[in-house]
Amino acid sequence: MKVLVIGGAGYIGSHVSRTLLDRGCKVAVFDNLSSGCKENLFSEAEFIHGDILDTSALSNTMNSGFDALIHLAAFKAAGESMTHPEKYSVNNITGTLNILNCAASAKIGAVVFSSSAAVYGEPRYLPMDEEHPVNPENYYGFTKLEMERFLDWYDKLKGIRYAALRYFNAAGYDSAGRVTGLERNPNNLLPVIMETAARVREKLEIFGDDWDTPDGTCIRDYVHVSDLAEAHALALEHLVSQSKSFIVNLGSENGISVKSMLETAREVTGRPVPAVVVDRRPGDPARVVASSTKAKEILGWKARSSDVRTLIASTWNIYQKQFSS
Ligand code: UD1
Questions:
Q1: What are phi and psi of 179, to 5 degrees?
Q2: d(Cα 137, Cα 150) in Å, to the nearest integer?
Q3: Selecting from 3.90.25.10, 3.40.190.120, 3.30.70.20, 3.30.390.10, what CATH number does the domain 189-221+253-322 have?
Q4: What pLDDT digit, counting tens, does each position of 260-280 carry?
């Protein structure tokens, strides 16, 4: 199978590309390297340095013949999306429409789309399954939901079959150490803990310890990026063999608190990882945990490497090498 991975130089996209190459696919990566990086490219994959706002670059690329594409090229900072929504409108929404229009002209009939649990908003019940009402609380989540809706229309009108994969909290690195690019200025919990352990950041700020949870800190469902990558490969195979669109959650079904992530990181790294408790972050729910029953039923997928030690150890392996002091 020949697959175009748009956003393939990013954190998740590079793991997806690696998994597809390992499974014998031909891969081309299309990326503008705005948040992705060259270290995340593999010599076996073709690289096209292009932007999803450049429709001629997109259509030239797609016209070279692909069986399917994976779209991961989006901005993802929930906080920033509330202060700079126009960035998210242009890149996430216009960019996705460009991709769909070019895919329709190039007769690419299968699209795997990187969606997010952010489409659900504040949890009304746990674990959250795909029937949970969608009510995004930030503009980022809204753009992901709109992109899913465009996909649904292009399925009906243009026959493009899609898989929308709603990731919970992606974490971890390839356990063989083959992906080495680090995110610049990360905001997500595990990279922030890693930068603190590596002493490039002074301390972790814990956003509140008075939540209604056993240790008072927020609970999230962290899922290993290599588990996510495997789900993309399975979703592609399913789309091509069944020709039917679907939406699935991808989570570990295991809730981990901020304190428990921090304490395990201290053990795994052997570093002190200083931390202070600060005010709650606006918009944070106390608990988010996925139900991934549907992914198991449809794809036979289950998170296998998402235990907290593996998440931390695989990430520390990369951070330690790059910031060794
Ligand atoms: C965030 C996004 C979500 C997106 C997901 C994946 C927000 C509000 N949500 O999820 O839309 O789909 O990333 O990219 O941005 N924490 C700290 N200190 C820190 C960083 C985080 O205490 O310095 C806590 C947070 O309060 C939260 C947990 O760690 O409870 C995880 O936070 P984070 O990694 O930012 O992910 P989410 O907010 O769950």
A1: -110, 125
A2: 20
A3: 3.90.25.10
A4: 999 999 999 999 999 999 999
Whether the predicted pLDDT of 137 surpasses 80 = yes
Cβ of residue 283 lying under 6 Å from some atom of ligand 1? yes
**CA 66 distance to own-chain centroid:** 23
Q: 3-class DSSP state for residue 59?
A: helix
**How much distance in Å is there from the Cα of 108 to the middle of ligand 1?**
34
| Closest residue to atom 5 of ligand 1, CA basis | 169
Q: Per the structure block, which two tokens stand in for 7?
A: 């956003």
Smallest Cα–Cα separation from 170: which of 127, 223, 114?
223
Opening angle at CA 98, ends 141 and 299, nearest 5? 60
Question: Ligand 1, closest atom to CA 208?
Answer: 22
Task: Provide the token pair at 240.
Answer: 């091509």
Q: Ligand 1 pocket, 205 CB below 6 A?
A: yes
Domain 2-171+224-250 and domain 189-221+253-322 have a common topology: no
Pocket test for ligand 1, best of 188, 257, 273, 277 (most atoms within 8 A of CB): 188
Residues belonging to the active site: 140
140-155 tens-digit pLDDT:
999 999 999 999 999 9
The fraction of the chain above a pLDDT of 70, given in percent, is 100
Q: Is 248 in the pocket of ligand 1 (CB under 6 A)?
A: no
Q: Mean pLDDT over all residues of the chain? A: 97
Contact between 67 and 2 under an 8 Å Cβ cutoff? The reply is: yes
The full set of domain ranges for the chain reads 2-171+224-250, 189-221+253-322
pLDDT band at 325 (very low <50, low <70, confident <90, very high): low
pTM (global) more than 0.90: yes
Please give the average per-residue pLDDT across 307-313, as a whole number.
98
Give the fold, CATH level 3, of 2-171+224-250: Rossmann fold (3.40.50)
Instruction: Give the position, in ligand 1's atom list, of the atom nearest the Cα of 117.
Output: 12
Q: Is the CB of 207 under 6 A from ligand 1?
A: yes
Atom of ligand 1 nearest to the CA of 167: 12
